[in-house]
Write a structure and sequence with these properties.
Rossmann fold, 2 domains, 7-stranded parallel sheet, SDR_fam, oxidoreductase activity, acting on the CH-OH group of donors, NAD or NADP as acceptor, NAD(P)-bd_dom_sf, 3-ketoacyl-(Acyl-carrier-protein) reductase, KR_dom
C-alpha cells in the first residue's frame, strides 16, 4: 500500500513542505531478512553490574550469533565479563569508552541483575553516558533485570522497577535513529529460559517493538530451534486469517515452518482460500461467536494432530459514543472480541486439543490500554483480553501452556489507508520511531510467543506500536 509521506520524502519540494509543517523524517526500519545467517550480526557492547547473574547465559546466546563482542575495559566488572565470554567460547575485546571514541555499535546490553539498592543505578549512567551517541541506526538497547515484585527488599524492588523507566526514556531518545530499547526481567532460576526473549528483542524481528518489558519465568527449558524455521512441525490456528493482520500472522507462522489452520467468516471465503493455498494451510469457515464454533474448531485441530499455537486475532469494531451506541453493537463487539476467545479456549482445554508445550496468543489493542472516544465497547473488550491473559498465565503454566497478548498501535492496513490524509500522516508519527508499523510486526511478535523456546514467556502484554505516545 502506498505511503504518500514517503513519496514526498523522495523529492526536494516534498522534503521542504514536510519540514515546514513539522513532520519528522523517519529512518526505514530493518526487518527480518531470510538471507541473514543468524539472529544478530554486528557489534555489541556488553556491560554488567556487580554480581550480575546473566552473563554466562548472555554470552551463550551471543556465541550462537555473528556478534562481535566488546566491553568497557575500565569498568569494575570487566574481569567478570571477560571470564563469562571465555567460558562460552566468545572472543570479547575491551575498549576504552569515552565520548570522543570512534567505535560505533549495533547494540548495547547491560546486565543489571546484581542491583540490590537504588545507589547501584549509578552504574547505568557510567555505562551508557559515554556511548549513547555511538549507537548505529536500527540499533538495540537491552537491559536485563529481575522482576521487582519478587525482590528481596524494597530497595531492590525500587532499583529493578527503575530499569523500566530508564529503558522507556532511552527508547524515546534513540527513536530518531529507528533504534529501540527494551527491558527483560528474568525470574531467579529462569536464567536458562532467556534465549527466545533475548534473541527476539536484539533481532530485526522486533523492529517495531519499542520501550517494552518482557518477563521470563521458570519453565521447562527448550533448546532454541533453527532460527529460520522455529515452528517446524507445529500446527497453528489463526482466526480472522483472510486479510490484514490476520493474513500476515498466517503467512509468518507458515514461513517459520508451521501448518496453519486459517479461520474466517463465510463472506471472506475467497480471500481465505487464496491465502491458505499460497501457504499450504487449511481452511475453516465459521462465526467464532456462534455456539457451534468451539466444538468445530476443536474437532478440526484434532484431525490435524492437535493445536500447538492458538492465535485469537479475529475482531470487529462498531464505533459510536456510548450515548448513541445501539445495544446490539455493544453485544456483538464483546461477543466476538472477548467472549468467543474464552469459549473456544474452554472447549480446547476440555478436549485436550492444545498440545503439551502449546501457546495461546491473543490480539488486544492500544485502545484497550488507553481508551478511545467512541470505542467504549471495543476498548472494554480489548482490555478484557489483557485481564484474561494475565489471570490465566499461572493457571495454564500448570498445564505447560503459555498465554500472552499483543497490543498493536498504528499498523498500516487498508483500514488506515482510509483515514483522511493529514490525520493519517500525523498519526503515523505519534511514536518514538516516527512511522507506522506493518502487519508483519505484529505477526513477528506472535511467532516469538509461539516459539517452543518461549516456554518461560507467559502472561506478557506487549505493545507493537513503535512506543506510541498514547497509552501506558
Amino acid at each position: 500500500m502506498s505511503n504518500f509521506y514517503e513519496t514526498l520524502l523522495n523529492n526536494n519540494l516534498g522534503r521542504s513542505l514536510l519540514k515546514n509543517v513539522g513532520l519528522p523524517t523517519p529512518i526505514n526500519l530493518k526487518r527480518y531478512n531470510a538471507n541473514q545467517e543468524t539472529y544478530f550480526e554486528g557489534r555489541v557492547l556488553v556491560g554488567a553490574s556487580d554480581n550480575a547473574a546473566l552473563l554466562n547465559d548472555l554470552m551463550r546466546n551471543l556465541k550462537a550469533s555473528n556478534a562481535k563482542v566488546f566491553f568497557p575495559s575500565a569498568c569494575k566488572t570487566a574481569a567478570a565479563i571477560l571470564k563469562a565470554a571465555e567460558a562460552n567460547g566468545v572472543r570479547a575485546v575491551g575498549v576504552e569508552c569515552k565520548k570522543d571514541m570512534t567505535d560505533k555499535f549495533d547494540a548495547f546490553v547491560f546486565d543489571a541483575t546484581g542491583f540490590s539498592d537504588t545507589e547501584h543505578l549509578n552504574q547505568l549512567y557510567f555505562f551508557f553516558n559515554p556511548v549513547m551517541r555511538k549507537l548505529n541506526n536500527n540499533g538495540r538497547v537491552i537491559v536485563l533485570g529481575r522482576p521487582h515484585m519478587k525482590a528481596a527488599t524494597g530497595e531492590q524492588a525500587a532499583a529493578m522497577r527503575a530499569l523500566e523507566g530508564f529503558t522507556r526514556s532511552v527508547a524515546k531518545e534513540i527513536g530518531k535513529k529507528s533504534a529501540t530499547a527494551q527491558s527483560i526481567y528474568v525470574e531467579e532460576g529462569a536464567e536458562a529460559n532467556i534465549d527466545s526473549a533475548f534473541r527476539f528483542v536484539i533481532s530485526a524481528k522486533s523492529a517495531y517493538m519499542d520501550g517494552q518489558i518482557l518477563t521470563v519465568s521458570k519453565a521447562d527449558v527448550v533448546t532454541y530451534p533453527e532460527w529460520h524455521k522455529p515452528l517446524a512441525g507445529k500446527v497453528a490456528l489463526v482466526t480472522g486469517a483472510a486479510r490484514g493482520i490476520g493474513e500476515s500472522i498466517a503467512r509468518t507462522l507458515a514461513r517459520d515452518g508451521a501448518t496453519v489452520l486459517g479461520l474466517d467468516i463465510p463472506p471472506a471465503e475467497g480471500d481465505l482460500k487464496r491465502v491458505m493455498a499460497e501457504i499450504g494451510g487449511e481452511v475453516l469457515l465459521g462465526d467464532i461467536s456462534s455456539k457451534e464454533a468451539p466444538a468445530m474448531i476443536s474437532a478440526k485441530l484434532k484431525e490435524m494432530g492437535g493445536g500447538d499455537i492458538i492465535v485469537h486475532n479475529a475482531g470487529v469494531t462498531r464505533d459510536k459514543t456510548l450515548a448513541n451506541m445501539p445495544e446490539h453493537w455493544w453485544s456483538m463487539t464483546i461477543a466476538i472480541n472477548l467472549s468467543a476467545e474464552e469459549h473456544i479456549n474452554n472447549q480446547l482445554f476440555a478436549d485436550g486439543t492444545i498440545n503439551d508445550g502449546g501457546s495461546i496468543i491473543c490480539v488486544s489493542s492500544m485502545n484497550g490500554i488507553a481508551g478511545q472516544v467512541g470505542q467504549t465497547n471495543y476498548a472494554a473488550s480489548k482490555a478484557g483480553v489483557i485481564g484474561y491473559v494475565q489471570y490465566m498465565a499461572d493457571e495454564l503454566a500448570k498445564k505447560n501452556i503459555t498465554i500472552n497478548a499483543v497490543a498493536p498501535g498504528f499498523i498500516e492496513t487498508q483500514m488506515t489507508d482510509a483515514i483522511p490524509f493529514m490525520t493519517r500522516e500525523v498519526g503515523r508519527r505519534l511514536n518514538s520511531l516516527s512511522q507506522g508499523g506493518k502487519p508483519v510486526d505484529v505477526a513477528e511478535t506472535i511467532a516469538f510467543f509461539g516459539n517452543p523456546a518461549s516456554s518461560g514467556v507467559t502472561g506478557n502484554v506487549v505493545r507493537i506500536c513503535g512506543q506510541s505516545l498514547v497509552g501506558a
